[in-house]
Amino acid sequence: MSGYEARFKVWRGDTRGGGLEDFAVEVNEGEVVLDIIHRLQATQAPDLAVRWNCKAGKCGSCSAEINGRPRLMCMTRMSVFERDETITVTPLRAFPVIRDLVTDVGFNYRKAREIPAFVPPSGLGPGEYRMWQQDVDRPQEFRKCIECFLCQDVCHVVRDHEENKPAYAGPRFLMRTAELDMHPLDAASETGLDRKRTAQDDHGLGYCNITKCCTEVCPESIKITDNALIPMKESAADRKYDPLVWLGSKIRRRSPAD
Amino acid sequence: MATGTEPQPSSGGGVRTGTRAAIAAPHLRTDRWWLAPAVTAAGLLAFVLYSTWRAFADTHYYSAPYVSPFYSPCLAERCQTMHAGPNAALFGSWWIISPAIIILIFPLGFRLTCYYYRKAYYRAFWLSPPACAVAEPHRAYTGETRLPLILQNLHRYFFYAALLVAGVLTYDTVLAFRDTHYRWGHMGLGTLLFLLNIALIWAYTLSCHSCRHIVGGRIKHFSRHPVRYRVWGFISRLNAHHMLLAWASLVSVALADFYVFLLASGAFSDPRFF
Amino acid sequence: MSVVDRQEWDVVVVGAGGAGLRAAIEARERGARTAVICKSLFGKAHTVMAEGGIAAAMGNVNPHDSWQVHFRDTLRGGKFLNQWRMAELHAREAPDRVWELETWGALFDRTDDGRISQRNFGGHEYPRLAHVGDRTGLELIRTLQQKIVALQQEDKKETGDYESRLKVFQECTVTQVLKDGDRVSGVFAYERESGRFFVLEAPAVVIATGGIGKSFKVTSNSWEYTGDGHALALLAGGHLLNMEFVQFHPTGMVWPPSVKGILVTESVRGDGGVLRNSDGKRFMFDYIPDVFKEKYAESEEEGDRWYEDPDHNRRPPELLPRDEVARAINAEVKAGRGSPHGGVFLDVSTRMSAEVIRRRLPSMYHQFKELADVDITAEAMEVGPTCHYVMGGVAVDSDTAAARGVPGLFAAGEVAGGMHGSNRLGGNSLSDLLVFGRRAGLHAAHYAAGTAGRPRVDDAQVATAAAEALRPFSAEGPATGEGQTHPPENPYALHQELQQTMNDLVGIIRRESEMEQALKKLAELRARARRAGIEGHRQFNPGWHLALDLRNMLLVSECVARAALERTESRGGHTREDFPTMNRTWRCVNLLCRLTDPGGPQAASDPVRGQITLSRETTDPIRPDLLALFEKEELVKYLAEEELCA
């Protein structure tokens, strides 16, 4: 495959407004969308704002929407498009724009702070932690998250309803509650913190209607819905909607999730 | 600092909210994103129409030795007598409409609250959202936080009920190893169909997310529960195919019913193997 | 000029990678109000790219391991040029730093008895690298990030404000360390998003900005790696140590062009990957240097057996230290035995099943599948050397991480020099970040608490820094003799020329004439960089950001070229074609770079003089009890006679 000229539409602008701008740009074999954006910077639009870092799908900086789909620019190869196709690149549309392809992702950092941190078990010093691989497998899947925030962007709960942002943590951070809840040594419950209940009451788990777009866009292929959100919903159901479990926990005086 | 953590003022309007990138189009997808919800809607609608007709028909649901899964167990006095079949006249003679209505509540409720079907109909019928990154048409959204959708949390009760129903259908499948004169040790095309159907029903029921949670999902230390861990692993592998099983079992249950209808109405006669 | 916003903090940490975050955590826990400044978003630092693991002699997999063995491996890897006290502290403290991460929520891969699993790596005698698949760096950065959030949650409970004691200024760049006389008084920075300037006043500043890879064309490093911290330290009066030592990682991707340089983790080889040339030959057996002859397998059979039975076999030469492997690959390609795209073949598919590969090397599988359309479970990867790490860096005190000569300035992580000597072992970087990040935070907090009276920030310095930062907006060429002006230079073009220069002339194999040529070219680029001009305004303008980073890259590149020209031997990450062997008399020589004229204009274009003055110093003799860890026969290969007697 030799080089060719591709047509791009890139959203340029800032908080005051903006629009899609047309570019014709050279594309070479093996390139990804981010390469083309860089070529635009170097040759046609030196002040085109874009976030990026590792260029290998590991840092989650270059999130954007390509032909309307949330994706990492560094992991979207040009070969998936037809040569005569016009490729549209816009910033993430669930967050306030700053400039060009750069958005204000502060929402996510605010939400990250609202999730109570890991509670180390009392009585275990550094070096004394013992955990088995089958116990850490589940939370490890969630820790593959590169925080690209594509799931937060695509989730219609906040994408289509700005007013839900205060009440809803979004898939990434509901997954974080699941991760901590499944951590074999997290001692939150000993301090009176019930992560299952807070996921429902404080972080808006009930807003999720499991339509799975978070899983669909995840560049790390984390099964966010099946492995994190639904288990959290089931755990919350244990607590709040299952009188049998409730009764059992009262009688046996222990947590059903040992 | 806008990349910092100060809260932003917010206003309604979804992707067209004032602070977001000024793009008028509700979405910019160029692929056939509408295809999946359209097919889902068509499939579900077809099943709803068919099953409504069959459930209210109150006829042609038994042809020895087969009983339609829509009418099993049959819990009213008006039920057709099925030799050693799933008759139990818990509801007396006062029940005057189709007895299918009594029992269908359970599998219907199970499927209605199923995590896969929820996704399917939220997308296909509610358009909430119609597809990923395609704006939904609703002004407000509260998800499953309040009535009636908060009742989706009852899924596990329907799961327990679905286990019982699957048990009865298993019994019906055993009965299908008889001939039209109730002699054991025979098989016809219907038996095969019933076997297929019950296998898919079980696979669908057991692959359910509630089941996965109950058998092991709530355990924090798998290493201390090796047996439940293995069962959980098995259910998890099944669960990965939950969508496929949901559709396959939906089709097979309708097919089994339709086959009984054909036999009972005399439009077709069951090819017997032995 | 508008009034520049000022804030007061006790400790300012520049950089939010592993070292910066660890320093910030420590400083905050010691009671210092701490600010962290980073160029990217919080949690995106280059540390996420680290794949293999954290080297720490916990002895979980092989109980024979101990800090002494780790120390020995580190010194061997660095060819005995390491600042030995740093290597000692590093080896002693690394296990505690790893275990500490667990108490903050990290989830490493486990051994069968529930402890942290450890894997083999080049240059490490025992399996030593704590890891999480091949995404250990991500785990490290996320754990530290979440620990910072945990501390902020504590502060919120106490003070009502998350950021009262620990604040992260993300997407901000520091362009100047400010001083009050000798002492550090704060930093001058701009917000990338708005272009707004601000000053953080603080008696102690920790530099943890990472490396310099973006000065080279083929590099595994991200855009952030422009040598900012190195340059900040130089400009503040600090010294850079042994800048000639640049590590070329032997295995970077070579195809497709757009990802050339991106790292292929050493775990591929640690887990059994073999290197072959276009003849299908495992060529590494031909490249075992004499100093390592006894430690490595002589036949493929023995090397293969080692994976199963490491106690009775020697390891395969694919696991030699990185410098050796990089040079070998370079030589094979030059000899015409390379792969179609100019690398060699790295193959794991022959030794491991597809399922094992996907489990143990998930991100490598993903990376090749997505970016190169290569299925590593079925075919070989094409790999070649890529600029990866700089061993040289800010000269620091081993125990306190304090930058020599600048009270109040500290440096930790890749930006600090000395720890790794002439070549870093894989896995020693993440442990370095933790050990010295913590030490830098600790001593910065002590220093800040102990200073009598806060240093004063000088308005004139702030004004100068602001004017310097704004210059690219008004770039016009200076009048030439004939009264004409040069057009403004494109910063992207300048950057590309710089990268090409460093890659071609000060790359993996170096020659005197080429380096002299490089210094000339750098002088020319320096002059042109003064005229780097940009379009647009100050809000999130990448052209402007690059124009400002050019200053740093040019300064650092000059240090590398000058030091490389001076050191007339080959050692670790510095290979001279004209001096191909290691010279024992150079072992005790450190090369120090400092700014020739700290107050003067940063544009001196005289290639001979440049901006950097180089000096030599003699290293401290290694403490006898540490020397006693080695066999005499080994020491004679490295140390000069008089050192052995001492």
From TrEMBL, chain A:
<comment type="pathway">
    <text>Carbohydrate metabolism; tricarboxylic acid cycle.</text>
</comment>
<keyword id="KW-0479">Metal-binding</keyword>
<dbReference type="InterPro" id="IPR050573">
    <property type="entry name" value="SDH/FRD_Iron-Sulfur"/>
</dbReference>
<dbReference type="InterPro" id="IPR025192">
    <property type="entry name" value="Succ_DH/fum_Rdtase_N"/>
</dbReference>
<comment type="similarity">
    <text>Belongs to the succinate dehydrogenase/fumarate reductase iron-sulfur protein family.</text>
</comment>
<dbReference type="InterPro" id="IPR017896">
    <property type="entry name" value="4Fe4S_Fe-S-bd"/>
</dbReference>
<keyword id="KW-0408">Iron</keyword>
<dbReference type="InterPro" id="IPR004489">
    <property type="entry name" value="Succ_DH/fum_Rdtase_Fe-S"/>
</dbReference>
<dbReference type="InterPro" id="IPR006058">
    <property type="entry name" value="2Fe2S_fd_BS"/>
</dbReference>
<dbReference type="Pfam" id="PF13085">
    <property type="entry name" value="Fer2_3"/>
</dbReference>
<dbReference type="InterPro" id="IPR036010">
    <property type="entry name" value="2Fe-2S_ferredoxin-like_sf"/>
</dbReference>
<dbReference type="InterPro" id="IPR001041">
    <property type="entry name" value="2Fe-2S_ferredoxin-type"/>
</dbReference>
<feature type="domain" description="2Fe-2S ferredoxin-type">
    <location>
        <begin position="6"/>
        <end position="93"/>
    </location>
</feature>
<dbReference type="Pfam" id="PF13183">
    <property type="entry name" value="Fer4_8"/>
</dbReference>
<protein>
    <submittedName>
        <fullName>Succinate dehydrogenase/fumarate reductase iron-sulfur subunit</fullName>
    </submittedName>
</protein>
From TrEMBL, chain B:
<keyword id="KW-0472">Membrane</keyword>
<feature type="transmembrane region" description="Helical">
    <location>
        <begin position="94"/>
        <end position="117"/>
    </location>
</feature>
<feature type="transmembrane region" description="Helical">
    <location>
        <begin position="184"/>
        <end position="204"/>
    </location>
</feature>
<feature type="transmembrane region" description="Helical">
    <location>
        <begin position="157"/>
        <end position="178"/>
    </location>
</feature>
<keyword id="KW-1133">Transmembrane helix</keyword>
<protein>
    <recommendedName>
        <fullName>Integral membrane protein</fullName>
    </recommendedName>
</protein>
<feature type="transmembrane region" description="Helical">
    <location>
        <begin position="244"/>
        <end position="268"/>
    </location>
</feature>
<keyword id="KW-0812">Transmembrane</keyword>
<feature type="transmembrane region" description="Helical">
    <location>
        <begin position="33"/>
        <end position="53"/>
    </location>
</feature>
From TrEMBL, chain C:
<protein>
    <submittedName>
        <fullName>Fumarate reductase/succinate dehydrogenase flavoprotein subunit</fullName>
    </submittedName>
</protein>
<feature type="region of interest" description="Disordered">
    <location>
        <begin position="472"/>
        <end position="491"/>
    </location>
</feature>
<dbReference type="Pfam" id="PF00890">
    <property type="entry name" value="FAD_binding_2"/>
</dbReference>
<feature type="coiled-coil region">
    <location>
        <begin position="508"/>
        <end position="535"/>
    </location>
</feature>
<keyword id="KW-0175">Coiled coil</keyword>
<dbReference type="InterPro" id="IPR027477">
    <property type="entry name" value="Succ_DH/fumarate_Rdtase_cat_sf"/>
</dbReference>
<dbReference type="InterPro" id="IPR015939">
    <property type="entry name" value="Fum_Rdtase/Succ_DH_flav-like_C"/>
</dbReference>
<dbReference type="InterPro" id="IPR037099">
    <property type="entry name" value="Fum_R/Succ_DH_flav-like_C_sf"/>
</dbReference>
<keyword id="KW-0560">Oxidoreductase</keyword>
<feature type="domain" description="Fumarate reductase/succinate dehydrogenase flavoprotein-like C-terminal">
    <location>
        <begin position="495"/>
        <end position="609"/>
    </location>
</feature>
<dbReference type="InterPro" id="IPR030664">
    <property type="entry name" value="SdhA/FrdA/AprA"/>
</dbReference>
<dbReference type="InterPro" id="IPR036188">
    <property type="entry name" value="FAD/NAD-bd_sf"/>
</dbReference>
<dbReference type="Pfam" id="PF02910">
    <property type="entry name" value="Succ_DH_flav_C"/>
</dbReference>
<dbReference type="InterPro" id="IPR003953">
    <property type="entry name" value="FAD-dep_OxRdtase_2_FAD-bd"/>
</dbReference>
<feature type="domain" description="FAD-dependent oxidoreductase 2 FAD-binding">
    <location>
        <begin position="10"/>
        <end position="430"/>
    </location>
</feature>
